């Protein structure tokens, strides 16, 4: 499955905010750090705020921060919010046993399995230092 840029950028915005928990982060910082268009990031930050993952503060000294602790935000949640599932035409096709299987149901199930697997990983997992060989 190929992830959209929006999902990629949303994850990066959240990682950056989680890495700076004691202050408001500005969109320009994230844009500079990841070399991403500020205009595109503004849309992502707006969506993340609307979804309740960040708190956005307007004004001269404004910015954004996580609305929840990084241990409670899962990759599955982020992907589910930003990815749209594109279905094949809703047709039934014979499966190996000769019975008919609904393609839309198959893709629904596959997408849910994908996002369910990502539920095991939190934002904290992405910002935590990698274990060393001595750990």
TrEMBL record:
> Gene3D superfamilies under this entry?
Winged helix-like DNA-binding domain superfamily/Winged helix DNA-binding domain
Listed A to Z, the keywords are: DNA-binding
Short name of any one Pfam family annotated for the protein:
Rrf2
Q: Entry's SUPFAM superfamilies?
A: Winged helix' DNA-binding domain
Which cofactor(s) are needed, names only?
[2Fe-2S] cluster
PANTHER family, alphabetized = HTH-TYPE TRANSCRIPTIONAL REPRESSOR NSRR (PTHR33221:SF4), WINGED HELIX-TURN-HELIX TRANSCRIPTIONAL REGULATOR, RRF2 FAMILY (PTHR33221)
What name does UniProt use for this protein?
A: HTH-type transcriptional regulator NsrR
Query: Taxonomic lineage of this organism?
Result: Bacteria, Bacillati, Bacillota, Bacilli, Bacillales
């Amino acid at each position: 499955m190929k992830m959209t840029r929006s999902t990629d950028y949303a994850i990066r915005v959240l990682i950056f905010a989680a890495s700076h928990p004691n202050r408001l982060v500005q969109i320009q910082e994230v844009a500079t750090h990841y070399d991403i268009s500020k205009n595109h990031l503004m849309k992502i930050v707006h969506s993340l705020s609307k979804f309740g993952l960040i708190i956005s503060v307007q004004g001269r000294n404004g910015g954004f921060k996580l609305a929840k602790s990084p241990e409670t935000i899962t990759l599955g949640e982020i992907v589910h919010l930003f990815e749209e599932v594109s279905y094949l035409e809703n047709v039934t096709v014979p499966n190996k046993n000769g019975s008919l299987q609904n393609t839309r149901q198959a893709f629904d199930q596959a997408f849910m399995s994908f996002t369910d697997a990502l539920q095991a990983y939190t934002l904290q997992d992405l910002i935590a230092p990698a274990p060393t060989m001595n750990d």
